[in-house]
Amino acid sequence: MARQRIISTSINGNPVEVLAAPRQTLLEVLRENLDLIGTKEGCSNGNCGACTVILDGRPVDSCLVLAVEVEGSEVETIEGLASTDGLHVIQDAFLGQAALQCGICTPGFIMSTKALLDENSSPSEGEIRFHLAGNLCRCTGYDKIVRAVEQAAAGEMN
Amino acid sequence: MPVVHIPAPARDLTGGEVDLEIEATSVRRLIGELDQRFPGFAERVLEEGELKPGLRVAVDGHVSPMGVLARLEPDSQVHFLPAIGGG
Amino acid sequence: MASVEERQFHIEPFPGGTPGNQRLVEEGRLPDYDVVGTRPIRHDGTDKVTGRARYGADIKLSGLLQGFVLRSPHAHARIISIDTSKAAEVPGVHAVCTNADMPSATHRAGDLGEGVVDWYHLNQNVLASDKVLYTGHAVAAVAADSVHIAEEAAMLIEVEYEVLPPVLDVRQARTAEAVVLNDDVRTDRQPVGEKGDEPTNVAKHFHYQKGDVDAGFAAAEVVIEREFTTETVHQGYIEPHTATAYWSPDGKITVWTSTQGSFMIRMQVAELLAVPISKVKVVPMEIGGGFGGKIAVYLQPVAAVLSRLSGRPVKLNMDRSNVFDATGPTPGSYMKVKIGVDAKGMITAGEAELLFEAGAFPGSPINPGCMCIFACYNVPNGRIDGYDICVNKPRSNAYRAPGSTHVALATETIVDEICEKLGMCPVEFRMKNAAKEGDERVDGVTYPPIGMWETMKAVELSDHWQSPLEGPHRGRGIASGFWFNFGGNSVVAATVNEDGTVSLIEGSTDIGGTRASVAMQLAEILGIAAEDVTPTVVDTESIGYTDVTGGSRTCHATGLAAIKAAEDIQDQLCQRAAILWDVEADGVEYSDGQIQAVNGSEPRTISFAEISGKLNQTGGPVVGRGSVNADKHGGAFATHIADVEVDPDTGKVQVLRYTAIQDVGTAIHPSYVEGQMQGGVAQGIGWALNEEYHYGDDGRLHNASFLDYRIPTCYDLPDIETIIVEVPNPGHPFGVRGVGEVPIVPPPAAIANAIYHATGVRLRSLPMSPPKVMHELLSNDE
Q1: Which of C639, C656, C536, C69 is nearest to C283 (CA)?
Q2: How many beta-carbon contacts under 8 Å exist across B and C?
Q3: Distances (CA, A) of C169 to C136, C230, C232, C394, C699
Q4: Fewer beta carbons within 10 angstroms: which end of chain B, N or C?
Q5: Strand (E) positions, C248-304?
Q6: Residue C614 and residue C620: Cα distance in Å, rounded?
Q7: Cβ-nearest to A42 among C238, C511, C679
Q8: CA distance C605 to C591
Q9: Which chains share 3+ C-beta pairs under 8 angstroms with A?
Q10: Could you tell me if C725 and C634 are in contact, meaning their C-beta atoms sit under 8 angstroms apart?
């Protein structure tokens, strides 16, 4: 088995050094090595989006990224979204619109939403649905999630 | 008098009778009466004195949590049904 | 009281919702609550949107080992031998186990509250020792320092199999020539019938009969008989199964797991490991979806055994392919259904032969299917035969209104054909034949107050139904559905805090917002704000026995327990006020959050908030308790409207517009009620159009991933409009009926009817995926 190596990266704006094996995915290292359990595992082969994080500004399935690949990169996870002033406008919108039931897909959806709104601050409903198609939800039927993203977009404009 | 609805697979015991008036103040006594009239009925519904696992009794359309202990009124309707849960 | 047809209704937006959320209102009958019907932020919401909520796989314990389960590559095989010695020698491995490390089980029946389980079968399903009966069937497990080491070690376990031919089709499985999966299985005739004496794959035969079916058909003007098939379909919860267990030296087993029912897990673990239930503590973590699939045990006993053997806590997670291969999907089926109506369009008779896949061991939801198939209508004569048939697929389990979706496909598409033959509007047909209070189902039970007719009224008044659908290849379909819901046991305890808030403890795991809806019911009774109640879900040692979160029971039954606890608090606070004022307790009343002395020389009043600060000095802390075994839950009806467009070149069906209408009794938290409706619709659309298990002839599942078992994404679906109908259930103080399950029942039939009206082609086989639609379109052209 290959030796573990030290990965130097930045997570939610904080410099982090973590020891990990080359075969470990970013998802596994976040959850097991760093105790950042907010990023969830739904399928481990890039099909459900529950493990979505933002890597150097792009939303990725962290189960498809090897941890060694984030050397020198900026990783944003769900844990970094709220501030000492309160919840992020996307988090508030998800709560206000009741856009979660079991909540397991919610961190992934929120990160994908952030990536979308960072790129396009007033998406149409069609654009929202297209951009979030990589995040699966089995509980909500997506309707209230879309309403939440619309509310967050409107909120960010103000 | 309470009326008990005999499920189709048990009508072989009752000679085809479907709805029977049975004098009883509890489901346990009702089963006893039915077994007297139609020997073998109790064996089909009871196991160690309780309703068989998976079998329920509904009184007036509501599945009773009391099983054989359920009380019956003079106008009670009684049905034996399989347990239904859900997902 | 006005007859049902004379009552006046209108549709309006449901306050606090978005434009697509509406309700049916009956003139003069609008309930007036302070908290019920509002939309507070759910109490566990912040933790869930910040990633702090801990789900099953998030548990961390010192000394935790990771496990891996070895699974069968064969669909049907006898196990000749298992040699685990090489695995045990791998550095980093702390324990290896097989079925031999579990106590032996007998063929006793266990009551899981919603059907019977044979303990021997469950023991074999958890870890096989006689035979493997589906690919993915668990055979052995390893606990090691990391999941990677555990997996590598598991690959060194040597299992010798004698491969047998797999049985994969229900019709084939019940023939005399079919290979029998389980030698112990005999056909059990239910309800209250006799058992057969030959080994067979036909585990159960349910038979219901009402009136004279042959006379009923003879009197019919139109008789239509059709055959249908559906494929195996999975609940598709996003969170895979997970269980962590620690077997301590004093014999106490603690299990941390995502589950719909901690007490149900406790009971199964205790039974399978032959320990008293007092030695098993189940700690429910947050759960990422269940839909019925997280009630039976899979990993919990195995994790406990590995813990016993290693002396350390052990965590077992399934990966996504394990979930598809080896948990509890809903059956595939074959159905033959016949319905007759007279010249006026009244149903005269209904007959059905239903074959459901049990999977490896008996226990499909064939009985609910039998009881639901004609449940939406008043059917004077009926005959139903339902068969639970073993095949080499994973043991089927409950999936949201289990069995009802299957049979609704049959009934609702035949009704659509009948309407066309008679030239009758499908809304009018359903209104004429709708089951009403006092009508008798084919199984003999008569209905209490129900809302089938009211859902049809809502269809009639809805914007969707009144908006014409234009354009080529487009069609509209409607369908109705029914589910019983469930009552059961729930316990809560509620402590009054000195600052005028209440801490509410409950055993119902919160999958869809029930912390909020239960807290709201307590708040309504006490006259306080929902935000002033702090609900906590606790483990099996901290609260009384509570049945599963499932079966559409929680808002009703745990709500009832909370109401009882609130009333208990009211009584105690009146006593305390009497002490405070030095008056007789029977002159003190509680109303609207205020406690008042109603007689006596001077009127006195004190608020809940004020008196909560005076409890220690008037006798001590006040704790209210509520324990119920609820039995008047009220059934639920739903009718849905679907508009589709069918691409004539690819067979792809696009859902353009969808409205879900459902009688919920009373909506406690409308957002979460709408959410249940919309979620059920999405699952139903997936079931209708794309979801199915693809098996090879060797019985191997080919599409055990979310890529190839394709559930709807948000890009596939339109907005899902909701119209909440409220026909209060007299069995609950606020009128609550269950809401969670019935919304999955109408979609496949509604879409099948819509496809017909778009193309002139009727599909009777699910899923109605593009290749199948194309096949029918092209055959139709010839």
Answers
A1: C536
A2: 125
A3: 19, 11, 11, 13, 11
A4: N
A5: 253-257, 280-284
A6: 9
A7: C238
A8: 10
A9: C
A10: no
pLDDT score recorded for residue C333: 98
Question: In the 8-state DSSP scheme, what is residue C92?
Answer: T
Q: Specify whether the CB–CB gap between C374 and C482 falls below 8 A.
A: no
Identify whether the C-beta of residue C511 lies closer than 8 Å to the C-beta of residue C680: no
Nearest CA in chain A to C45: A95
How would you classify the pairing of strands C9-13 and B77-82? unpaired
Q: Do C and B have ≥3 inter-chain CB pairs under 8 A?
A: yes
The SS3 of residue C457 is helix
Looking at residues C642-656, what average pLDDT do you find? 98
Burial of A22 (0-12, 13-18, 19+ CB in 10 A): middle
* Mean pLDDT across C450-473: 97
Q: Tell me if C319 and A146 make a contact (CB, 8 A cut-off).
A: no
- Among C39, C682, C715, the residue with its CB nearest the CB of A133 is C715
The angle subtended at Cα A17 by Cα A15 and Cα A21, nearest 5°, is 145
| Other CB atoms within 10 Å distance of the CB of residue C70 | 24
Predicted local distance difference test score (pLDDT) of residue C252: 98
Distances (CA, A) of C703 to B68, C138, C167, C406, C710: 47, 19, 19, 22, 9
**C175 part of contact set with chain B, CB < 8 Å:** no
**Three-state DSSP class for C625?**
strand
The owner of tokens 């010839």 is C782
d(CA C764, CA C27): 41
Q: Is the dihedral of CA C289, C294, C295, C301 positive or negative?
A: negative
Q: Do C191 and B9 touch (CB under 8 A)?
A: yes
User: Taking Cα atoms as reference points, which of B30, A66, A38 lies closest to residue C286?
Assistant: A38
Contact state of B54 with C487 under an 8 Å Cβ cutoff: no
**Set of chain C residues whose Cβ sits within 8 Å of the Cβ of A44:** 319-320
For residue range C279-297, what is the model confidence (pLDDT) as tens digits? Answer: 999 999 999 999 999 999 9
Chains B and A are in contact, defined as 3 or more C-beta pairs closer than 8 angstroms? no
**Distance of alpha carbon C68 from alpha carbon C28, whole angstroms:** 61
User: How crowded is the C-beta side of C472, counted as CA atoms within 13 Å?
Assistant: 3
Closest-CA distance, C197 to chain A, in angstroms, reads 43
The residue among C674, C663, C614, C684 whose CA lies nearest residue C18 is C674
Cβ distance B54 to C109 less than 8 Å, yes or no, reads yes
| Residue A10 CB-density burial (10 A; 0-12 exposed, 13-18 middle, 19+ buried) | middle
